[in-house]
Amino acid sequence: MQTTNYKVINGPEGYLPPAAASMGVVLPDEGEALFEGKIMLKEEVMKKIAVKLLEAKNPTFFPGPLVLWAWNEKAIEKAKAVKELAEIVGAKIIPMPDYRPKYPMINPEEEINPNHPNLTIWHNKIDVCVFVGVHCHYANLALKIIRGGTNCYTIALCGNYGHEDAMISLRDIYAEEVRSLTDVVKSMKKGGK
Amino acid sequence: MAVKTTSQSIVEPEHLFFKAEREKQFITGSEAVKEAIKRANVDMAISYPITPQSESMHLVGDLYAQGYVKDYYRGENELGVMSAVAGASMGGVRVFTATGGQGSLRAFEMFPTWAGARLPVVCAFFCRGLNSPLTIQPDTIEIGLMLDTGMIILHAETAQDLYDMILKAFIIAEEPDVHLPIAVFADGFFVTHTREIVEIAPEDIKLPPYNPYKSPVPVMDMETPPVRQMRDPFVMKSNFISYATHASWQQEVRAAAERARKHINRYLGGLIETENEDADILFMTSGTAASQARAAIIELEKEGIKVGLVKIKSLRPFPTEDIRRIAKNKKAIIVPEFNITGWLAREIKAVVEDNSKVIGAPRVFGGMTMPVELLLDEIKKHL
After folding, report:
1. Using CA atoms, how far apart are residues B30 and B193, in angstroms rounded to an integer?
2. Residue pair B222/B92 in contact by the 8 Å Cβ criterion
């Protein structure tokens, strides 16, 4: 049972913010999702994602290797669904093609890297971002750094169990769930609630 | 590769752990390891036999010959074995090994490396003394040295625990939100070389295979993208970003251990086990010291003295909240240990509100047994 009062909200939180899991934030069970450190029903959280994306000045999707590469049919289907969602939102797409630290420096207009994600966010003035298809370890690594040093609002669409370090996180996200989220965004754009 | 194949059926972990009818066998702890690995669908086992774990890894070698383990070899030393284990795990297979005592220390560099690389290795450790002059006798001092490696650490009391913890460790370690190495400790000789009744699942069933595609880090598959596997070091650049990344990485490893709580609760029934939890005086301990505490509780009951027991099964993650809650309003917490340093008493003192009531005694070490009389004497000092 979750008992923490720790809130996972946009920063900058400080020099070295803690991992939310170490502050007592626990991952959701099936059918649930995380909103700013609290467990809620998935459907409610999908609406919150839609609001955040539609209200954002510069929403940006960060697709990782699991959807960037056509390594199986499910990945291809999910990638198409993510692209459609980004287009409906009117969001930019900046890929995270791999996880190697980029030296001497990254080109922040072309890519984001989990080891220094703040550089891409600062450079592009991204206020809301969506992680999708990023291996969980690297997503958590980046989400903590973003919370520490930027004011970007983070959303993680996870194929496994979700991410405590994102402000909003859905779990078990495959193509079908991405399309459901797209439907929520479409409905909200038309003025639905 | 093993030439023989077996006709085991793959079953859900819950079936193997909880539903399958179990058979009672009178076996040693080492044989319990063999029975666990037989049902664990292990791809690879690598061994450097050292007493007291030598029998268990010999027996795992027999399993390879019988076709239950797909690949097996003996490494050149413990560091070599643990490094090879890392390579196998990075390659996306389920891997098992065991060590103990000086072997653990010789391989020590690899344990934080496994954790940092998010490798779900399962390793059994059979504790023995460490210091010169050489001893091969039981002593749990090495557990204290392992606590901050980032590994999940379980401590078995009995051969039954050892069998169950090893099998369940694979499933807990491989959960994508955890994906950390698990050390299953047992007290050398007391558990490994003595016989007891162990209830085991049928030998014609086994766990589902490891699915590396659920891993939180890419595996080393150079044929199928995404191919990048290296956990690239940050040391080639000395700047704030590199340091912050490494810090975030370390936090994530600790966070993964926190997430294991849910799975340990599900598969092991909690991080602790209690007996007479409402008594004013409690033993709080782990491993075979818990067995000695149980024997003391029976003796004390004959004298009309009620004493409880908290057996700590998971040392990492540590059952901080459980211990804090149970210790509240108790008169004394007695922490018997098989080591000179009293690392468990230190751990408990660090989380109990009024830690003056935590008594780090009795302690025996160097292979000594812990007579029940020592425990009775300690309790009677605090009545």
Report:
1. 7
2. no
CB contact under 8 A, A21 and B245: no
State the virtual CA torsion across A71, A77, A83, A85 in degrees, nearest 10.
Answer: -140
- Distance CA(B357)–CA(B337), nearest Å, equals 16
* Length of chain B as a residue count: 383
Q: Are A64 and A70 in contact (CB under 8 A)?
A: no
Q: Give the H or E element holding residue B38.
A: helix B29-38
Give the span between the Cα atoms of B17 and B233, in whole angstroms. Answer: 39
Measure the CA angle with vertex B218, ends B215 and B223; round to 5°.
Answer: 125
Contacts of B251 in chain A (CB under 8 A): 18-19, 22, 144
**What's phi and psi for B166, nearest 5 deg?**
-65, -45
Is A98 in Cβ contact with B228 (below 8 Å)?
yes
Chain B partners within 8 Å of A106 (Cβ): none
| DSSP-derived secondary structure for A99-160 | ----SS---TTT---TTSHHHHHHHHT-SEEEEES--HHHHHHHHHHHHHH---EEEEE-SS
Query: Residue B55: is it exposed, middle or buried by C-beta count within 10 angstroms (0-12/13-18/19+)?
Result: buried
Tens digit of each residue's pLDDT, chain B (383 residues): 445 667 899 999 999 999 999 999 999 999 999 999 999 999 999 999 899 989 999 999 999 999 999 999 999 999 999 999 998 998 899 999 999 999 999 999 999 999 999 999 999 999 999 988 988 889 999 999 999 999 999 999 999 999 999 999 999 999 999 999 999 999 999 999 999 999 999 999 999 999 999 999 987 755 544 444 455 556 556 677 778 888 999 999 999 999 999 999 999 999 999 999 999 999 999 999 999 999 999 999 999 999 999 999 999 999 999 999 999 999 999 999 999 999 999 999 999 999 999 999 999 999 999 999 999 999 999 99
Which residue type, as a one-letter code, is found at position B296? A
Sequence ranges of the domains in chain A? 31-188
Domains of chain B: 9-213 (3.40.50.970), 272-380 (3.40.50.920)
ipTM: 0.95
Q: Point out the residue among B228, B236, B245 whose CB comes nearest to the CB of A116.
A: B245
User: Distance of alpha carbon B65 from its chain centroid, rounded?
Assistant: 26
Assigned CATH for A31-188: 3.40.50.12640
Q: How many CB atoms lie within 10 A of CB B65?
A: 12
